[in-house]
Amino acid sequence: MSCYSLSPTSAPSLASSSAPASPPRQLQRRLLRPYPADRDMTLSDTTNLSVPSSKSTMDERKRSIQPDSDDIYPSKRHQTSQNAPQMRMDSEKEKDVESFQKDAILRQMKEYKREKALYESQVQDLSKRSQHHDDHLRIVDAWFTQLLDEIRILVGDLVSDQEPEAGELFNSSLLFEDNSLFDTHLKNRSSKIKAAIKDVFGRLPAAEPEVRSLQERLAALLAAEKAHLIERQRISGECDQLSERLEQASYRYLLAEKKLDRAKSAQVQKLERQATMGGHSESSSSSEKKSVKSEAAETNGEVDGAIHAAAETARREALAASEKRKLQMEQLEAENKRLTEELTSAKVRLTSLSDDDYAKTDLYKLLKSQHEEIIKRVNDLEATNLQLREEAQRLQAERTSYRNNMEEESQTNTTDLETQLARAESDLARIRNARDELSAELSVRKGSQDQSQLASDSVKELAAARETRIAALESEVERLKLQIGESTASSSNEVIENMTIDELKSQLKTLENRHLLLNNELPSMEAAWKKAKGLAERKVSEILEWEEQRTRIHAEKAKADQKYFAAMKAKEARENELRTLKAQNAKSSEIVTQLKDAENNSRSLIINLEKQISESKESLTSLSQQNRTMQQKLSEGNLTLEKLRTQITDMKKIVVSKDTASSTAASAKRQAEVELEEVKVRLEDTKKSLDSMKRKGSGRESESDDWRRHAYHIVNEYVLVTYVDTHCELGHTNVTNPGNADDGSLLLSVYTTSDYDI
Fold it and tell me: Which residue among 239, 263, 287 closes a domain?
């Protein structure tokens, strides 16, 4: 299972996180056993999984866990200690602990995978950003270098007699003193830029104060524009991020809305649809009613009646205007015919352009020069391509020979290292056996020394107990002596009664002496009894320990014999496996020779294929170069075509504007001429009416008002005729007469040519 393939660096953290306390020694040694073949865990990984305990024995200090093939199984001492009945754990508990550790390892591995995916995405994002920033910095650096070079060239070309101070001429805004962002980015190049710009501005001629103030204002505005552009770019980036978040939120909203729509029933949707249809019908009916009312509310305009005389004058005016318009139409038809002929001739010439016409264009000259330059570059590239092809073939041959040499050297080094490794492993096994023997001998000697020391201590304690016993026996002898004297003294009570006072005193003294002797005898006897009791208990415990040790040693001997026989059986199995492996090795050597022959054949085939690939790559590069050149030509042609198209559109706009202006002027002129004819007709009518009025005379008082009205009308007509005669040739005045006013008043309305509605 792939979940057990742990790295050496991550395994200790897993062990520390999954197991809060150190597991038992038996579980640690169990973890050190080799996993089956289906589990992808190496010995180094398993060694890192073992959690060290707080107590370290002498064997652990002597032997360190190493990923060797000889140290897969623990030593005899470890096996005997872990297989002891009192230190053994239940099989169910062992399985539970193993499953618990496996689950902990699996959970930690999943956590590491999630963190790995997150870190990889962050690294990719940071790499993209760093690449973008590096490209940006390189471009800015190149731009600054180009700017300095151009300024130096400009300064070298300028020649000025007067060289005033640079600060007096122009206050530059390239430094962006009020912007911290530009100041931090341009701090490294500020000195060079200052010097170059001051030199340029120092060589420029002195300008007027107004021009200088305008220049300073323009520079400040440009600097503010740059700052605003950078701020706008930052805000646009933030806006893009927010728009992405908005799209995600809208997508989630749409999903939620779909779920909500699914949750609704069909009956509710039907009712909502009926409600919406009813609202639409009501709104449509109300709008129709409103439209009918508005149409009914509209009223017709007032219709003015016409007088017979006015109708006659209008007819004559219309006849004069029609004749004038007929003349104008004939002129327009002739002009239109001439323009159409010129247009057809220009179209024919445009469709049938000759090579000379194309050769005279700037685009043809540019393309011709570029074509010649590209031909030269292609010739140079073909020559270099031949050289590079020969060099590539030579390097390919050198690479194959070098590869063969390196493979042979690596094989020889591998065999040498394998022999050295086998020798080192055998030496290591011998050294470990010697070390185990020495450690066993040392432990035996230490045990014998401890036993001799215990025996000497017990002898000393027995001697001390003997001394105390001797003292107790001496006091007992004295007491017995006194008892013997007492028995003689108390032979009869009569004798005591018959004794004198001196005799009684002597008897009392003897009794007191006996009492003192007993008091002296009791502590020594008690101490001797306690020492004898302790020695006896210690001896009994030692005898019990010796018996227990003897039984354990017998059990260990039986286990060791069993393991010895198992090791002998394993040795015989290993010898059989070794014989089979030797036979397989002989067969595999033959297979290896066959594989080497096949490898040589495949190498030759690979070399041929690589040559073919190199040739195809060269042809592909040549084709791509040709494609790039053609694309460059096409892009240049497109650029020139776009320039010409923009020029044509600009010219078309100019021509259209001129045509509209001329057409409006001509239409205004024609309208003025028509109105002039109408005014002339009305003038003739007024003159005739004036003559008739003069013939009638001034007989009646009632006709005086009519005469005044006609006179006022004549004066107005005269003023109008003079105004039109003076302004009709300019083409920007329009004079209209209502013609139906009863009071004879004349309304003059003047319009400019641009505002006149044709």
Answer: 263
